[in-house]
Write a structure and sequence with these properties.
elongated, 1 helix, 64 residues, three-stranded antiparallel sheet
Length: 64
């Protein structure tokens, strides 16, 4: 069971990462139980996304 969290900015603010990165870190820490095997953050400018991964199949080679 994996989990995702994130922010999307609209309007005047064009970059989500600067202001929301610490909040996103806390958000994916809270869902640690959903995926203790891996995590990552993607900064796409107006979208800042984080995920937690639970390895069930391909535990060793399934890095996302």
């Amino acid at each position: 069971m994996c989990g995702i969290a994130g922010f999307v900015t609209l309007g005047q603010e064009t970059h989500a990462g600067t202001a929301h990165a610490p909040s996103l870190e806390r958000m994916i820490d809270v869902i640690h139980h959903r995926g203790p095997d891996g995590h990552g953050i993607y900064d796409g400018g107006s979208a800042l996304l984080g995920h937690r991964r639970l390895s069930i199949i391909d535990v060793a080679g399934g890095h996302q």
